[in-house]
């Protein structure tokens, strides 16, 4: 009997120890603010929200419309090169084409060059996960255990660097811009570094540690669709070569939509281009390597400026305007209902 009593006492102490303290916070007795909604507060909330959203939306739309942009579709203008690239056996054959266009007005300020792809789906689940983040950090791993399959190794056992479907399908057209000024042709200076996110360049991508890149990737091979190995992406700048190449880093950040654009270059504001791109005749010299015919895609080159809100994308501004309009209309509807009910209440009281 004594043992049973002690057991019950211990059990009671265990149960009591699990109970929360008798404090206002743990017993949920703290004072709370309970707003008393009335017609004035409800209507003012709707109208203020509508006014705010409409103001922000109009500012965003005006900002997006002030962006200067030129978009050139070169899919058909480089048709001969496109036919050559349809046959994968011609991967080592070079093909060049040129596209002429005219700027009727100066594009002042910082000018950014993008490449755009249409009907290229990067949002497929198997495509999105087909990469090895550990490999991109420069670690020596067994990529057979990664999600890179089937782009992991060749039949002879040589590992692909980088592995995966995303890296294998990297956009590899080379685009140069020339200004046809009177009788002379001047190449527009373009910046190929500083275009990727700082966190990507300095945190998510690393080259293997070695005294030089060629030795670091000695036991690897390029992906099947690449024309050169990863350690030759930029032979002029060691800080922009290998896995830390800006073009490669930007491509590895996949898009959510089938039509997208990626930053390719920035116009260097020096000499006659210090203020931007002057009006005149220009030419894109393109080394055509990326095939798009098989998936019925299109390729574009875009020259664009940016504003405080970004590039020319009115979607956010339109979304704010629609939200503001909906909130304002809801406020008017509630006002009309309130006035109608108040008239009925006054009538019945009489």
UniProtKB/TrEMBL annotation:
One GO process term, biological-process aspect: phospholipid translocation
Please report the organism this UniProt entry assigns to the protein: Mesitornis unicolor
Q: Which Pfam families match?
A: CDC50
Q: Which family does it belong to?
A: Belongs to the CDC50/LEM3 family.
Looking at the UniProt entry, the stretches that span the membrane are 37-64, 315-339
Instruction: State where the protein is found.
Output: Membrane
Principal cellular location given in the protein's record: membrane
**What are the entry keywords?**
Glycoprotein, Membrane, Transmembrane, Transmembrane helix
Membrane is among the record's keywords:
yes
GO CC, sorted alphabetically, is: endoplasmic reticulum; Golgi apparatus; plasma membrane
Protein name (record):
Cell cycle control protein
Keyword Transmembrane assigned: yes
């Amino acid at each position: 009997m004594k043992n049973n009593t002690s057991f019950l006492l211990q059990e009671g102490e265990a149960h009591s120890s699990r109970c929360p303290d008798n404090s206002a916070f743990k017993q949920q007795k703290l004072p709370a603010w309970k707003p008393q909604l009335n017609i004035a507060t409800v209507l003012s909330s709707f109208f203020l929200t509508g006014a705010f959203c409409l103001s922000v939306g109009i500012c965003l739309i005006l900002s997006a419309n002030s962006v200067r942009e030129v978009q050139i579709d070169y899919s058909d203008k480089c048709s001969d090169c496109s036919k050559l690239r349809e046959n994968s056996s011609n991967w080592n054959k070079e093909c060049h084409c040129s596209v002429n266009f005219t700027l009727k007005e100066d594009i002042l300020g910082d000018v950014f060059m993008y490449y755009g792809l249409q009907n290229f789906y990067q949002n497929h689940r198997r495509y999105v996960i087909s990469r090895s983040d550990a490999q991109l950090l420069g670690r020596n791993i067994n990529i057979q255990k990664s999600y890179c399959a089937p782009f992991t190794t060749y039949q002879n056992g040589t590992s692909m660097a980088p592995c995966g479907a995303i890296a294998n399908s990297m956009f590899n057209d080379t685009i140069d811009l020339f200004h046809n000024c009177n009788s002379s042709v001047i190449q527009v200076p373009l910046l190929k570094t500083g275009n990727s996110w700082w966190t990507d360049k300095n945190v998510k991508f690393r080259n293997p540690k070695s005294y030089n890149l060629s030795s670091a990737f000695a036991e690897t091979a390029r992906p099947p669709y690449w024309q050169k190995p990863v350690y030759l992406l930029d032979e002029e700048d060691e800080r922009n070569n290998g896995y830390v190449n800006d073009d490669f880093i930007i491509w590895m950040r996949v898009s959510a939509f089938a039509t997208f654009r990626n930053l390719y270059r920035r116009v260097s504001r020096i000499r006659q281009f210090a203020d931007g791109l002057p009006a005149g005749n220009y030419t894109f010299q393109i080394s055509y390597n990326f095939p798009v015919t098989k998936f019925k895609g299109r390729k574009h080159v875009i020259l664009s400026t940016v504003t405080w809100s970004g590039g020319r994308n009115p979607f956010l501004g339109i979304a704010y305007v629609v939200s503001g309009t909906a909130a304002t209309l809801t406020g008017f509807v509630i006002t009309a209902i309130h006035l109608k009910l108040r008239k009925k209440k006054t009538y019945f009281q009489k």
